[in-house]
UniProtKB/TrEMBL annotation:
Alphabetical list of Gene3D superfamilies matching this protein: P-loop containing nucleotide triphosphate hydrolases (3.40.50.300)
Record's keyword annotation contains Transport: yes
Residue stretches making up the ABC transporter domain: 2-253
Name recorded for this polypeptide: ABC transporter ATP-binding protein
Single Gene Ontology MF annotation: ATP binding
Organism per entry: Jeotgalibacillus haloalkalitolerans
Location(s), subcellular: Cell membrane
Family according to the record: Belongs to the ABC transporter superfamily.
PROSITE patterns on file: ABC_TRANSPORTER_1, ABC_TRANSPORTER_2
Keyword tags: ATP-binding, Cell membrane, Membrane, Nucleotide-binding, Transport
Cross-referenced SMART domains: AAA
Primary subcellular site in the record, as a coarse category: membrane
Source species, domain of life: Bacteria
């Protein structure tokens, strides 16, 4: 359904060219849930926004690569084509629902208008559909709540409303950019469960962007790990969690809190993410990598298959060598 080929997105800033997306290739199939994880600044949002050309142009330019949605080139769409494409085929929800809702217009009207923008139905049918959608996303008393203003809803409820708005056009792909970061933990879990149930009901593919490995663990079939504008590891969720093949992914996983663990402090990844204007030569993670070898500073590892099908990693260490290094590290940490 979605095919991204060797995509490069550059941001021309006064300080220089930020290589925010630096040669990324992936597909999303209908109904699939794909998680994109990485630290702040790794290029997740720029990548997601480029799928519907939401990065302001300038500063964004697309010097190389292609994005196809059902064989249509998104990078070659004109303004009018983009307008109908956005929301209708691919919809997006953001971290802060308040910024996407109009504070002075009732929820019901905003939702009804979103439906009417995409479907040729009467106003009363759209209203009925709006109530149905609010019900689907778990808003109690939806017919009554249609008359509420955004500030009369809690943060979690507002995120539910936005999910309903995104579903108004029955998109084939829903991009959720850090949809739960602004919510507290119990509400986060409810919103993630809602996304899962929506996918089952509507068959919508979901691309979820997060810096939280716990979020992708809960939701994603397939995970792509981003570092410095590149995908450094991708595979099925179980490959990423149980056959981790790239030291950056391993570091992200080690920084996750573990329920019931005797570990008392969270392990953070030492060092800073690289400057995307002057990225380091060789592997961009090398300056922070606990397993770096001499070659890592000179040659950039390609994203290559590992032993499990469709599991790719960009690391000069072979699977067995990485396994050995991890075991040595565990030995040092436990002694
Ligand atoms: N409008 C812009 N102008 C200049 N640089 C930008 C702009 N937007 C993003 N960047 C830079 O592009 C890089 C990628 O940013 P992006 O927002 O995609 O990261 P991210 O992984 O989504 O991080 P976060 O989780 O903090 O949103 C960063 O170095 C960021 O500073």
């Amino acid at each position: 359904m979605l095919k991204v080929e060797n995509l490069h997105v550059h941001l021309n800033t006064p300080a220089g060219v930020v290589k925010a997306v630096d040669g990324i290739t992936f597909n999303i199939q209908p109904g699939e849930t794909v998680g994109i994880v990485g630290e702040s600044g790794s290029g997740k949002s720029v990548l997601a926004h480029s799928l519907i050309r939401l990065n302001p142009e300038p500063p964004a330019v697309y010097p190389d690569g292609e994005i196809y949605f059902e064989d249509r080139s998104v990078l070659h769409m004109n303004k009018k084509e983009l307008q109908t494409f956005r929301g209708k085929e691919i919809a997006m929800i953001f971290q802060d629902p308040m910024s996407s809702l109009n504070p002075v217009i009732r929820i019901g009207r905003q939702l009804t208008e979103a439906i009417l923008a995409h479907r040729k139905i009467s106003k009363s049918e759209a209203k009925k559909k709006a109530i149905e959608l609010l019900n689907d996303v778990g808003i109690p008393d939806p017919a009554v709540r249609m008359r509420s203003y955004p500030h009369q809803f809690s943060g979690g409820m507002r995120q539910r409303v936005l999910i309903a708005m995104a579903l108004a056009s029955e998109p084939k792909l829903l991009i959720a950019d850090e949809p739960t970061t602004a919510l507290d933990v119990t509400i986060q879990a409810q919103v993630l469960d809602l996304l899962k149930s929506i996918q089952q009901k509507y068959g919508t593919a979901i691309m979820i962007i997060t810096h939280d490995m716990g979020v992708v663990a809960r939701l994603a079939d397939r995970i792509m790990v981003m570092y410095a504008g590149k995908i450094v590891e991708s595979g099925k969720a179980e490959d990423i969690f149980y056959h981790t093949s790239m030291p950056y992914t391993w570091s992200l996983l080690r920084s996750m809190p573990v329920l019931g663990s005797t570990r008392h402090r969270l392990i953070s990844i030492e060092g800073q993410p690289p400057d995307l204007i002057n990225p380091p030569k060789g592997c961009a993670f090398q300056p922070r990598c606990p397993f770096a070898m001499e070659d890592c500073a000179h040659s950039q590892p390609a994203l290559e298959p590992r032993s499990e099908a469709h599991h790719l990693a960009a690391c000069l260490l072979s699977e067995s060598a990485f396994e050995e290094k991890k075991n040595q590290m565990k030995g040092v940490l436990s002694s």
